[in-house]
Amino acid sequence: MSIITIVARGRGALLGLAAALAAVPAGAQSLPAAEAAPCLLVPIAPAQRAAAATLIAEAQVLDARSFWDAGHRHLFTRHRLRVFGLLKGSAADTAGLVVVTEGGRLGPDQQVLTNTLRLTPGQQGVLFLGPAPWPGLGLAGPAYAAYGSTQGFVAYDLARATAADPFRAYPAIDAAFYRALDPAGTRPRLALRPNPALAAAQARPLVAAKGAAVAVVTGLQPAQLPAGTGAVLTVQGSGFGATRGGGFVEFANADDGGRTTVQPLAADYLAWADNAIQVRVPSAGAGGHPAGTGVVRVTPDGGSAAASPGALTVVYALTNVASTDVPPNVQRPNHVANNAHGGLTFRYAPNFGANAAAGAAWQRALATWRCQTGMNWELGPPATANDIASDGLSVVAFDQASAALPAGILGRTTSYYQGCYAPDRSVVFYVNEIDTQYSSAIAFQFGPAIAVGQQVDFESVAVHELGHAQQLSHLIRPGAIMHYAIARGQNSRQLAPESDVAGGRQVLRTRSFRNRGCGGPALLPAPLTALTAATETGGPVLRWATQDDCFLSSFVVERSAGLDTAAATAGWQRVAAVALGPPGTAYQVADAQAPARLAYYRLGLVRPDGTRDYAAPLLLAPAGAPAAALFPNPVTGTQLNFQYTAATDAPLVYSLYDELGRRYRLAAAAVLPGLNVLTFDVAALRPGFYIFRWQDGQGGYQSRKFLRL
Fold it and tell me: What range does the record give for the signal peptide (predicted)?
C-alpha cells in the first residue's frame, strides 16, 4: 500500500508527493497524481536521497547470504556487489562491495518484512548507500545499507534498458538518467569497469528486427485467476518458439501497481510451445514480488516482447515462501495456534499502548478480519518492551530512535516463518510470530471519525497490514483492502468480499485450519476458543466454547465414514446440528451411535452466507482401545498404521527389526498431543515377522510385533 501526497513530520523530514514530483528532474517520468506507489511509503525527493547517501553506486548483485545478528533476534542478508560505476563517494572494494538488507532465509528460519528492500542475485541498478546502521552484524570490513530501503534502489530492466524506483520510471539509461539521480550533484559518473549486460540491453532495439523471433499474444485463458495458489494461466498466440530457452513471461508487479513487471520462477513454467504457454501465476516470482492485474508479456528466446490484448485479472494473492533448496521449494505458509484459545495473541508495546486512539483503531481492524474470515486473533496482555524482534511475541509498536523505520516508510509487518518436516517428509512452513511497526512521525487520523482532506486514516492502514499478517500479498484492485495503495483522505476499512475475504478464507481453509503435521496445532476458526473430544462411558463427546459470536449462525458435528478421510471412498456423516446459543454457552454433543472403531470427528461452523469452516478433525478411539496398536496385523497391503497416544509434541523415534534382529529402518515422526495415527510404507519388507519399536517423548521404549504377508 502506498500513501499518496502524505506529509511526514519529524526527523527533519517534510515530504509530500507534490513536492517530490516537482523535484523530479529531466530524464525521469513520475506517476500522475491519481496513481500510486508501493505500500506505506512517503516519497523521498531525488535530491534528498542523493544528499543523504555517502555512496551512489551502479552495480550488480552477485549473491545473497543470510545471517543472524549477535543477539539471534533479527535475520539480515549480506550481498556482494560488483560495482560498474560511481556517482558519489568512493569504495575500497568495488569487486565485492557488501550491502546488507533486513530479513532473510537461513535454514528453516525466515523473516519477511513488507515495504523493505530485497535484492536478488543478478539484479542491476543504482544504489544510494550509507553505513549499515544495525548493531551486532559481526561482519568483517565495512557494510552498507540502502537509504530509504526500497527507495534507495533504482532497479534496471535489462529486457528493455529502462529503470524504475518506487516513485519514478526512467525510460532510458543514459546521461540524462544519471543526472536525474543526483540533480544537485556536480560529479559525472565515474566508470570503473564495463557492463556487458547493460550494453547489450541498450543495443537490443537496434538489432531486434534482424532475424529475431516475432511473438504475438492473442488471448489469456482464463482471464481471471488468483496468484500464489498454483493456478495455471494459458497464454495463447504464436511465435513463442518450440522451447522456452531464454524466453520468459512477465506479469504486472502488484507491489508497485504494475509500473514494473515480475517473472515467474523457473518451476512455474509447465509447458512452452510455439502457440501456447502454460505458467503458474506467482505471488513470489523472481525478486519475491506478486503478479497483479494487468497485461501479460511474452518474450521468446532472442526475440522482442509481445503484450496480451487484454488484461489478466488477479483476484487475490496468497503469500508464498521459498526454501533455500536448489531449486527452491515454494509453498503457502500456514498459521499455528500459540495461545490457549486456539489462535494467535498480539500484544501492544508500551509506546503503542500509550496511544488509546491508536489501540482502539487497531482493535477495530482486528475485529474486521475475525468477523469476516474467521481468523483467530486476539489482543493479550501488553509487552514489556518496544522491541520488534524474533522473541516469540507478536508485538504492535510505534518505531523509536533506537529502532527507527527506514526513511520514507510509515509502517511494515514482519512475518517470522519456520520450516519443519511433516510425517510424509514434505517441508511445511508456518507463521511462528508476527510483528507490526508504525512510524511515530506521521500525524494519523486514528478515528473513529473518518479521515478527510490531507489526513491518513490509521484504521485503513491497520486493516491492510493485518491482511499481510493473514498472509495475503498486494493486489492491483482499487476498492480492495489489499490494493497496493491508499490516498490521503481515503478510508478503506471494509474487506472486499471477492478478493480480501475470499483470499483470507482460502488461506485459513486450505492451510491454517488444518493440522499440517508439524509446527504446532491448527488454528481454531474464530469465534471458537476451545474444542476438545474424548471417549467417555456413553461414547465419544465433543465440547466447545466461543466468544464474540460474530460471523456465526450455527454448528454441525460430523463423523468420518472411514479412517482415511482422503480416500476416494471417504466421507463425513452428520452426528448433530447445533443451534447458536446465548453468549457463554458451553456446547456439548455426544455420539450415541459411534462405531466400534477409530474415527475422526470434526466441528463445522456455519457462517451467515451458508458456507462452513471446519476445525481440524480430532481422532477418537472406542472405549477400551489400547493406547498404542499396530493395524492391520497381519499386513496384507503396503501400509502399516500405528495408533499412538502422545503426551507431548516431542517427535516419535521408531525403528523396524526383522525376526533376526536386523534393523531395517530408523526414523522420526512428528506427533501432536493426544491420539495420532501414523502410516508407514512397508512395501519393501519381505514376508515375515517384524518388531516395531519406538521411543516416546519421556525416553521410554516400547515395541509391538507384526506379520507381513
Answer: 1-28
The phi-psi region of residue 698 (left if phi > 0; otherwise alpha if psi is between -120 and 50; otherwise beta) is alpha
pLDDT tens digits, residue range 47-98? 999 999 999 999 999 999 999 999 999 999 999 999 999 999 999 999 999 9
Distances (CA, A) of 408 to 405, 459, 487: 8, 20, 15
Tell which residue, 409, 410, 415, 376, has the closest CA to residue 394. Answer: 415
Pairing status of strand 248-253 against strand 291-299: antiparallel
φ, ψ dihedrals at 350, nearest 5°:
-55, -40
Distance CA 507, CA 332 (A): 8
Instruction: State how beta strands 427-438 and 411-421 pair.
Output: antiparallel
Q: With contact defined as beta carbons under 8 Å apart, do 693 and 655 qualify?
A: yes
Integer CA distances (angstroms), 571 to 251, 513, 567, 601, in order = 40, 19, 9, 12
d(CA 315, CA 74): 33
Rounded to whole angstroms, the Cα distance separating 349 from 364 reads 18
How far apart are the C-alpha atoms of 470 and 70, rounded to whole Å?
Answer: 30
417: left (phi over 0), alpha (psi -120 to 50) or beta: beta
705: three-class secondary structure by DSSP: strand
Q: How far from the centroid of its chain's Cα atoms is residue 13's Cα? A: 31
CB 223 within 8 A of CB 312: yes
Sequence-ordered strand ranges (E) for 199-352: 216-221, 224-227, 232-238, 248-253, 261-262, 269-272, 276-280, 291-299, 306-307, 313-317, 321-322, 330-331, 334-335, 344-348
Copy the grid coordinates of residue 702.
516400547
CA-nearest of 290, 284, 460, 279 to 368 is 460
Please give the angle made by the CA atoms of 125, 126 and 131, to the nearest 5 degrees. Answer: 125
